[in-house]
Amino acid sequence: MDFDRALIHIGEYGRFQMCVQLLACLPPILNGAHQLSHVFLAAVPEHRCFIDGCDGNGTTFHAPWAAYAMPDHSAEEAQCYLRDRNVTAPKGCAAEDFRNTSQRCDRWVYSDAEFKSTIVTEFNLVCKDDWLVSFSQAVFMVGVMIASVLFGHLSDRYGRRVCFLFIPPVFLFTSWATVFTTNYVQFTVMRFITAMGATALYQTSFVLAVELVGPSRRLISVVLFQLAFPIGETLLAVAAYMLPNWRHLSMALAAPILLLLPYYWLLPESLAWCIHNRMEDEAIAIINRAASWNNRPPVANLNRSHSCDKSCTDPCSHDPTQVPRNSSSLADLFKTARLRCRTFNMGFNWMVNAMVYYGLSLSVDTLGGTTFHSFGLLSLIELPGVLLAVITLQYVGRRISLSAFLLLAGIFCVIVPFIPEDEPWLSTTFVTVGKCFITASFAVIYLYSAEVFPTSHRNTAIGIGSMSARIGTIASPFIASDLGKVHPTMPMIVLGVLSLLAGGFTLALPETKGLRLPETIQEAENLGTPYYGSTEEERASLIEHSTYE
């Protein structure tokens, strides 16, 4: 049974694949919204100490007595310290009632200019507890990291579709449970589980969609997927603007998950996975279902080509180098020197892509405007980046495209620290262009990873890449903030140098444009060698020799 022969029969991209692609776009939209919702759920508004005797339940942030009570020093002291009262006026609110000495406060008044309520204002995650805001997002990313590997391996062993049976209900439950959390620990735990659900569905739907289309149309799958993520981000910005209360926004994030509940019955299993695991009945059912939608004739079974030798006359016979069902292992990706290098190379690329992507997002603070407008603009900037990736992938290829985008992003990052401070618009332009290039790089690496690794280990490999990306994501805030305290130029230089290194390492990977997806470890090993033929040659041979009954 041969996957390429099956694709020839049903067509590389017909109505069936189009419907699957559209259904598969919902998980990345939801993932884009959930993964970056922390920007709004945990937004830190302006705040100052609560002044006993002056402030009440309805007190505004800009109360007249606030100027007298706040220390005239650093921003931290103005937010976390309160001047002592004179003994003669312990409840006074006039300027003469406050002394020059100060002490830490334990109650705050928050500005509601942008946000009516966030977890920061509700759980008082400011001053000595401000680190908990970043920690909560770090825990979320740990959930993404764990899900990337865990569910990637499970779907390689038990099928792509099975994830849509039990993950959506859990995803829905934890998302709704987040709305009703009453403390920081509950919120963080629910977000951790939500991250695992969102990531598992996002990753699995991507692999499922890619494995149903032929090489010449595979780019469409990646384009739709990469466009879906910034669409989710943009919709998040709109929802956050309309719902400035974090609990209401959480409800809006949870509601669309209901649409995922019937996915197990709507989506087919991966045809490539069924064929690889010699599940002929399931594969025939998928082929006939696709053939019906694509106006192709049904088949009873798929025979080997007539040019086959006697050892492959059995329709279910398979290459002895194939890994049997349920025997795929993470260790297989490290068994040979070539595969080890590719796995580490891809992992490093994923890490750098995520680190630079999120690092630039944190650095673009010169755009001005509200949080909603700036976030929405940064999300929309990603769209031309994806379209740029489409053009280069179509005409240049995977390896050169990925390398060029990483190198260009690195160059723009390295230049930023040397731009004069009196030219902020130029710095903003360079950072924005760098964000566009790193977005294009992200679009390429998803497709590239799916084409470099075999069907038997594809989801596992993408899971490793996604896990590596989370390492970069967790590290990016520390690079942007802590390194900036050492020297203002350090963040951009570090991000730029890492991007340049990744761009150089990419040139050691094989080109996969126009090649069929490898199905076994041996085929993946042969990528980039004369032993792996081009799609055009193999398709011509298949069309000439294959028969369908």
TrEMBL record:
Molecular functions per Gene Ontology: transmembrane transporter activity
Pfam families: Sugar_tr
Signal peptide (from-to): none
Keywords per UniProt: Membrane, Transmembrane, Transmembrane helix
UniProt xrefs under SUPFAM superfamilies: MFS general substrate transporter
UniProt-listed InterPro entries: MFS_dom, MFS_sugar_transport-like, MFS_trans_sf
Key word Transmembrane present: yes
GO cellular component terms listed in the entry, alphabetical order: membrane
Membrane topology: Multi-pass membrane protein
Subcellular location: Membrane
Domain Major facilitator superfamily (MFS) profile per the UniProt entry, residue ranges: 92-514
Presence of the UniProt keyword Membrane in the record: yes
Superkingdom as given in the UniProt entry: Eukaryota
TM spans (from-to): 131-151, 163-182, 188-210, 222-243, 249-267, 343-360, 372-393, 400-419, 425-448, 460-480, 492-509
Record's protein name: Putative synaptic vesicle transporter svop
